[in-house]
Design goal:
The complex is a heterodimer of chains A (about 130) and B (about 550). Chain A is an alpha/beta fold and about 130 residues long. Chain A has helices at about 20-30, 45-55, 70-80, 100-105, 120-130, and strands spanning about 5-10, 35, 60-65, 90-95, 110-115. In chain A, strands 2-1-3-4-5 form a five-stranded parallel β-sheet, with helices on both faces. Chain B has helices at about 1-25, 55-60, 90-105, 115-120, 140-150, 165-180, 195-200, 210-225, 235-240, 245-265, 270-275, 290-310, 315-320, 340-355, 375-390, 405-425, 430-435, 435-455, 485-500, 505-520, 525-535, 540-550, and strands spanning about 30-35, 40, 80, 110, 160, 190, 230, 235, 280-285, 320-325, 360. The chains are: A alpha/beta (about 130), B mainly alpha (about 550).
Chain lengths: ~130, ~550
């Protein structure tokens, strides 16, 4: 029997709009994954701690305020600093096209903007979990 | 005699309805439900309003129970107030847009603070990095308001602000800025959110809920005494709606929050007839025009009954609910965004038919950008056309007497009453928020709605039906507002300059006095005003309050 995929879903930064994150968490849970929601206003340090504590296979980060470039950079640097290399990083929210290659280059595995089909997200996670 | 004739005629209508339904096979057709779970028939008749008494339940506009509006003539001589808000970058940027709106016919200045200000962080706080002036206006000290208001005809206009938890600090800053600019703050008009309980749904709760509620009631008391034309609380029902709630949940949980503030105000000896006229609500109007209009009629009737029967209010102003209503930005879509002009207009029609006093209208592009001058002009023009071209303003409550709308009004009111009772069983608004009951109830409704969108059962034009064959991916042309690094730099420099110039002794004393007031039971507002005079920053004042009351811990409910 295969292990259930563990997902940490996080709201990074000061943006409090968490409906998308909570909805995604609910859908992933319904798809059989184990989902831990961090709550809002998480700093990069807090998110990295959650990933380690929960031994997450996937980290979902939701940002709608436009502050994604700065915040995700800090997050990825901290993850590298703690030598986390077996966790998929997915960013969701309002991410303009021009920022996507920048985030990918930082080490983000996938970016899903609003209006994404839930099945696409589930498909991506099941095909790409590294453990 | 008259009554029995009426009963016979209702009986007749029922029989005829059965016949009509059978002949047209309506009993076999699909059922629809609206506003959550109200099942809707193909047509309504007087039989559906049996038991509804015109004089005591519908009545006349401007009279109890205010189902038809707070004023006898409603919009006949003066339409609702245009109150679009804006806020981005620093005070200079926002003032420019305000000036544009003023020149285009809006006599209200309405501001949205940035996220650091919502959370009580100064612009130079490390946690505010990347977020200063991005989705709203950065506010650090009184000086920001002096720049924002400078040269604007504030005394002829109203000032409104979307700040939920730390509204008291905003008003203190505005107070001192007006004094310094030679204006009389006691004449201040407008409204401020000041609703830390609704902030839970937007993620802008800063202080623990008990502390936040005390600060909110302090501001209500201060304004009732010192700025009698100001609405010191504009309960943020819209936060619930944007947080996924259905209309029943929106009204019920907003009223539960109102009950909490009212009780606290009464506990400190305030008179219901003094402060109830200064309570208002900021609702969201979804695209479903008739349900939303009925919602407003139900809300006004229930509010009047609650004020009179539960809280013993005696004056008309204390019993009649006034509210602003914004077309719900949640209804805006990224696919072919110009269609949002139509969606928002539907919401504004609902607000007008429902009798709103103000319409902060959303811009068609705000789902993915900070509105441009052009998109603000289109939004303002939309509500101006509705108010001044369509004639829907010529008679009060034009939907009254519609069998369907009256039936919906009754049904919505009944369901709201039930949901308020559930919150009361939990021990009131604070307990049901802290236990996660409210978040869970809203989320489960929202997830159900999202499933209906995913399966296509609920139609979103261009997204899940009638998609453009060769349409671009809407998210590809998304442009996120970039905060101007120069504006951020200027903002931080200004803050540091204020800190350097201020009288350190006076500043220390003001914050010490504020702490003492917060630890005791005095009204904190005069002390916050003093701190503002001593040029204490937004973050410093919040810091004192956080230390005394404790910070809010976000729920991790899903």
């Amino acid at each position: 029997m295969s292990k259930r995929i563990r997902v940490v879903m996080a709201k990074l930064g000061l943006d409090g709009h968490d409906l998308g994150a909570k909805m995604m968490a609910t859908f992933l849970r319904d798809a059989g994954m184990e989902v831990i929601y961090t709550g809002r206003h998480q700093t990069p340090d807090q998110v990295v701690s959650a990933v380690i504590q929960e031994d997450a296979d996937v980290l979902g980060v939701s940002i709608l305020s436009g502050a994604h470039l700065g915040l995700v950079k800090k997050l990825i640097d901290k993850m590298k600093g703690r030598e986390i290399d077996d966790c998929l990083v997915i960013v969701g929210g309002l991410i303009p096209k021009v920022d996507r290659p920048v985030l990918k280059k930082m080490g983000v595995n996938a970016i899903f903007s609003g209006g994404t089909d839930i099945e696409d997200v589930i498909g991506f996670i099941t095909e790409n979990t590294k453990k | 005699m008259e009554k029995s004739t009426r009963r016979e005629s209702i009986q007749r209508i029922r029989e005829e309805e059965k016949r009509w339904s059978k002949e047209n096979r309506i009993d076999k057709s699909d059922n629809y439900s609206v506003a959550g779970d109200i099942e809707i028939k193909a047509a309504y008749t007087p039989a559906d309003l049996q038991g509804t008494d015109f004089l005591s339940e519908i009545g006349f506009p401007g009279e109890y129970p205010y189902t038809r509006g707070p004023y006898p003539e409603m919009y006949r001589h003066r339409p609702w107030q245009y109150s679009l808000f804006s806020g981005f970058g620093s005070a200079e940027d926002t003032r420019k847009r305000w000036k544009f709106l003023w020149d285009t016919g809006q006599k209200a200045f309405s501001v949205l603070p940035d996220l650091p200000t919502h959370m009580g962080l100064d612009s130079d706080d490390p946690r505010a990095e990347d977020e200063v002036g991005r989705v709203g206006l950065a506010i650090d000290t009184v000086e920001d308001f002096e720049i924002l208001f400078g040269g604007l005809p504030l005394e002829q206009a109203s000032f409104s602000c979307n700040e939920e938890t730390l509204a008291a600090i905003i008003i203190a800053f505005v107070w001192v800025a007006m004094e310094n600019l030679g204006m009389d703050p006691r004449k201040l008009r407008g409204a401020i959110s000041n609703d830390p309980l609704a902030a839970v749904h937007k993620g802008t709760t800063v202080l623990n809920l008990e502390g936040g509620v005390r600060l909110a009631v302090d501001l209500i008391e201060f304004c009732v005494r010192n700025a009698p034309r100001y609405y010191p609380i504009n309960l943020k029902a819209v936060n619930l709606r944007e947080g996924g709630a259905n209309p029943i949940q929106e009204v019920a949980y907003t009223f539960s929050n109102a009950i909490c503030y009212i009780k606290k105000a009464l506990e400190r000896g305030m008179d219901i007839d003094d402060f109830a006229p200064k309570l208002s609500i900021f609702f969201a109007s979804n695209i479903e025009i008739l349900e939303e209009a009925a919602k407003y009629r139900a809300a006004r009737r229930l509010w009047a009954r609650m004020m009179k029967e539960r809280f013993g209010a005696k004056t008309p102003k204390a019993c009649s609910l006034r509210f602003t209503a914004e077309a719900n930005p949640n209804n805006m879509q990224a696919e072919e965004p110009e269609l949002n002009l139509v969606r928002a207009a539907c919401g504004a029609i609902a607000s007008a038919l429902g009798g709103a006093q103000g319409t902060p209208h959303p811009c068609y592009d705000e789902v993915y950008a900070i509105p441009t001058e052009k998109s603000h002009s289109l939004a303002l023009g939309t509500v101006q056309i509705l108010a001044e071209e369509t004639n829907i303003t010529r008679t009060a409550d034009p939907l009254a007497g519609s069998y369907y709308v009256e039936y919906l009004t009754n049904e919505i009111e009944k369901r709201v009453v039930k949901e308020i009772e559930k919150v009361e069983e939990f021990g009131g608004a604070i307990k049901s928020l802290e236990s996660g009951y409210i978040s869970k109830t809203i989320l489960s409704w929202f997830v159900e709605e999202q499933r209906a969108i995913q399966t296509g059962q609920k139609v979103i034009v261009r997204r899940n039906k009638y998609r453009l064959k060769h349409g671009e991916n809407p998210w590809d042309y998304l442009e996120v507002h970039q905060s101007d690094p120069k504006a951020v730099e200027r903002q931080i420099k200004r803050l540091k300059e204020v800190r350097r110039r201020r009288d350190t002794q006076k500043w220390k004393e003001a914050l010490r006095d504020l702490r003492r007031a917060a630890e005791g039971s005095e009204n904190m507002m005069p002390f916050i005003v003093e701190a503002a005079r001593a040029r204490a920053s937004f973050g410093e004042i919040t810091g004192v309050l956080k230390e005394v009351f404790g910070e809010y811990q976000d729920l991790k409910v899903i």
